Amino acid sequence: MNPKSYTIRNKAGMSITVSSLGGIVQSLLVPDRNGKLGDVVLGYPKATQHHDNGYMNALIGRVGNRISKGGFTLDGTFYPLANNSKDCALHGGEIGFDQKIWDVRTFAGADGPSIELTLLSPDGDEGYPGNLFVRVVYTLMEDCAWRIDYMAVTDKPTVVNLTQHAYFNLSGGKDKDLCGHYVQVNASRFTEHLKGNIPSGKVLPVEGTSLDLRQPTSFCECLHGAKKDAYLKKVGGGFDHNYVLDRIAPGLSQAVVLEHPESGRQMEVWTTEPCVQVYTANFLSPKDKGKFGYGFDPHAGVCFETQHAPDSPNQVGFPSIRLDPGQVYRSTTIYAFDVVDVCEG
Ligand code: BGC
Asked: 325 pLDDT exceeds 80?
């Protein structure tokens, strides 16, 4: 089946175009300080090009990020998974949710125009147990926020950790890298990882390292300048780290603020998840020409993948991602754009 594209628009003119292939965001148009729309996500002319280019802007499941040890054990049964990335299972397996054709409908939601994506992942899909029904709703709120509500139910005990892999660059196609952006991540701890980005199980303070983004920090300084240290050199020369959020209460909590002063665009990430993977597109390659007419080099954009910690099924100290029959998996993340005088709210 060929993928189809769907577009919704809010009153401020903000719009999102989404493919039935993987729920891939093909464009996200957001006004700048002069009200001029710009596309704030990287992308390629065809949705089918996104998987091979870092899972660009796709829905990720059943389990985002990495699972080590060739699988996981649940209730005494070992479930083997394909090691589709180096020595681990990454982003749902060989054919994860980003490569599935989802059922899609658009509707007028209570909070704004919405796109509903649904998928039935059969028992045994990519090695995971249980028939898993997944529903994801993208809503464009009137205050210029892109809200994602995830829901899933299963008929057997299983594991679930869904996320979205959007690559943001708030310049709207003008800047070829993240210089010009400032980032703040509300996390005073991160999960240490070993070779292959597999967590050691330790949760360490960011204080005193280049990973400390608790104050607005220039991406340029981190990626190219003074702030670069061993942590940033290790993995592709940029951020690819799971931050444990400092949340005050359950529910939605502010995780990230990204600012691009030149355009006047600012994006806040709010989430119900405990963690966010900050990934500065370290492994992008310019081999394929993107939708702005040029190929994307490393650090062309940044992902804020809200999630439970990587390798949770194999890490006893991390919060569980187990889902049982009768339970409902729910997760919400909001990418809220704040453009002075243009967006209501
Ligand atoms: C991972 C990176 C990986 C990228 C694209 C991120 O979530 O943390 O290590 O290269 O996704 O696959």
From this structure: yes
Residue type, 118: T
Residue 343: pLDDT band (50, 70, 90) is low
Residue 98 and residue 24 in contact, taking contact as beta carbons nearer than 8 Å = yes
What is the whole-number distance in angstroms between the Cα of residue 303 and the centre of ligand 1?
9
Q: Which atom of ligand 1 is nearest to the CA of 60?
A: 7
Calculate the average pLDDT of the chain.
95
246 has a pLDDT exceeding 70? yes
Ligand 1 centroid vs 236 CA: distance in angstroms? 11
The values of phi and psi at residue 71, to 5°, are: 150, -160
Question: Do the Cβ atoms of 307 and 277 come closer than 8 Å?
Answer: yes
Q: Which of 24, 85, 86, 90 to mutate to test the pocket of ligand 1 (most atoms within 8 A of CB)?
A: 90
Backbone Cα Rg of the chain: 19
